[in-house]
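Q: Sequence in, structure out?
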Amino acid sequence: MFTKILIANRGEIACRVIATAKKMGIATVAVYSDADKEARHVLLADEAVRIGTAPSRDSYLLADKIIAAAKQTGAQAIHPGYGFLSENEAFAKRCEDEGIAFIGPKAHSIAAMGDKIASKKLANEAKVNTIPGYNDAISGPEQAVEIAKGIGYPVMIKASAGGGGKGLRVAFNDKEAFDGFASCQNEARNSFGDDRIFIEKFVQEPRHIEIQVLGDSHGNVIYLNERECSIQRRHQKVIEEAPSPFISEATRKAMGEQAVQLAKAVKYQSAGTVEFVVGKDQDFYFLEMNTRLQVEHPVTECITGLDLVELMIRVAAGEALPLTQADVKRDGWAIECRINAEDPFRNFLPSTGRLVRFQPPEETMFQSDTSKKLGVRVDTGVYEGGEIPMYYDSMIAKLIVHGTDRNDAIAKMRAALNGFVIRGISSNIPFQAALLAHPKFVSGDFNTGFIAENYSQGFHAADVPHEDPLFLVALAAYMNRRYRARASGISGQMAGHEVKVGEQFVVAVLGHEGQKDYHDVSVTDFEDKSRSSAVTVGASSYQISSTATLGQIRVQGQCNGMGFTAQVERGTPKNPLALRIAHNGTQIEAMVLSPLGARLHQLMPYKAPPDLSRFLLSPMPGLLVDVAVAPGQAVQAGEKLAVIEAMKMENVLFAAQDGVVSKIVAAKGESLSVDQVIIEFQ
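A: Exactly. Output:
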C-alpha cells in the first residue's frame, strides 16, 4: 500500500480524497494555485506545493508541475479527482512512465472512452445498447421513410450541420418522416448551405441514468447500482439520487450488466461511470463513459456502504476487489444537492467573494466512514471566512442525505437545506428547495427537460410558494417577543420606565416598491424552559417553541408538535430594524411593531431607489474581458455591450434599451465588483 499520495485537484474533491487517505494512514500532498494558498484542502493535507498562478491553465492543468511536486515530496501515487487532468490520457500515461501510480483507470481505457465515435463502436462490439441511427447522408424522402421504419418510430431527423433548432424534426409515422425530411433539407440548405440529413432514434421523455462500475487489475468488474441524474440545468446536474425512482429491477440488472460488459471490453481498472439515456418505456442507450470519480459518488456510497475513494486507492495499489456482485447492497435512499455560488433570482449569475458566514447543517454521516447512515453529510472545500474565487467552478458544497425511503430522504434534505447558513455570497439553496417541493419531483415524474419546462422564464420568488405563509409571520412575532423579553430583563432600567413586552403586535411584511402587508398578531408569555408560546395570526394559531440561542441564524424548534428548522436574522441591508425569516426556500422581511407603531409606519412615505438606467452595472464579480462599444456609439436594445468572465464561464451583457454611449468607465482586463459601473449612457 502507498504511504504518500498527491491529490492533483482542489476544493471539495481534494478534501474528500484526503479524508479517506487519512483513514487509511496514508500521508497526503496538496497542490495549490495562488488563489488557493489558504484553501481548505491545503490546510487539511500533510504537505502542500504551489504549482502556479490562479488560472487553471497556469496551475491545475500543468502536468509537468504536478509530477514534479509528486517527485519532490516522494508521493508514490496521484489521485486526479474529477475535472482538470482526471480524464487526460497523456497525464495518466506520463504518471505510468514516471513510475507514479495513477489512482484511476489505465491510459488505454481513458483513450478508448474519450472519443465519442470510438466509444460507440466499442459499445456496439460489447453488445451494449446504442441509439439506433443512420449516420450517412440520406438521398431522399423515400429512403428516409425506409430508414425510419427500420429504426422504429419515433425518429429524429437532423441536419448534419444543424443548430439552434433549425433542420430538426421528430417523426412518429411514415408521412411525418417523408414531409420532415424535405423540411429539414430545405432549412439546412438555406441556413447552413449544407443539406445533408441523418436519422436516429428519438428517445421520448429521456432520463439521464448512470451506472457506477468498479474494476481491478485482476479482471474483476462489478456494478454498484444506478444514479438518477435527470434534474439538470443547461446540461449541468443539480440534484442526483440513488436509486432511480423510475427503472425496474429488470432494467437495473440489464443496464448494470451492459455497463460491466463495456468496462471489461476496455480492461477497466478503478471507479468509473457508464451513462445511459433512458426512454419513457425504459428503453436505454449508451451515452458515454466517464473514466473518473463522479461528483455524485456519495449517493452510491450511502446506499452501498462502500468508500469508493478507498477502493480506487486499493485497486491502484494492485489489490483485488474485496467484494463480488452478489455482495453489493442497496440500502435506503440517498439524495445529493449541489450547493453552488450563484444567484438563482438573477438568472443564476455567479457569486464570488468572502464567506462571511458558512454553517452547514450538523453532519451525522462522514466521507471516510460509510458505516454511518440515515443522516446528513456535507462534502465541502470551503470554510467560514474563506474566499470563493472567480477562477474555478461555482460549487460551494455537496449536501447529501440518506433516508429509509425516497420520501424520508426528501424530508431530510428539505430540513438540511433550511439549516444551511451561507452569507456573504448568494447560493442556489432557494432553487433547490423549490425543486424538492415540486409535486412532479416528489412523485418521480420528471426527465432531463424538467427544469427547462417548469422554469422556462427563469426562477422567481413566486416559484417557491410557502405551504403556510402565515407561519413565517408567526415565527417573526415569536422571535421578536423573545428579543424583547431578553431586553426587559436587563438590569439598571429606570423604575417606572422598564421595557414592557406586551402580547399584541402588528407584523408588517415588506414587499417590493414600498408594498407592505400588515398582520395583527398576539404572542402569549413563555410557559416553560422550552420557550413555548401561543401565537395567533388572524384565524390561525401556532404553538411555537425553540431553545435556539438569540442571535444565532439557524433556529430549530417545534410548531404545533412538528419539528422545524428556519433562519432568522435581525437587520437587513435595506432596514436594520427588520427581521429576515427564511424557511423551505421562501424568505420574507418583516417588522414587528406595536399597534401604535404600525399606525405610524403606514404613514411613512416610500423612498424609491435612485434611477440607474443610464449605467451598465456589473451583475457579478469577475474579469472584464471585452467592451464591445465605444463612446458616442448608438446602441439598440439587445446589442452586445460587454463580456465578463467568472467561474470558468463567459457572461455576455446586452443593452436593455436603445441609447448612446457617453463614457466607458471600466477598462478591459479590470477585475469588477458587483454593481461596479462599466458603461455610462447619455
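DSSP finds 17 helices and 39 strands in the chain.
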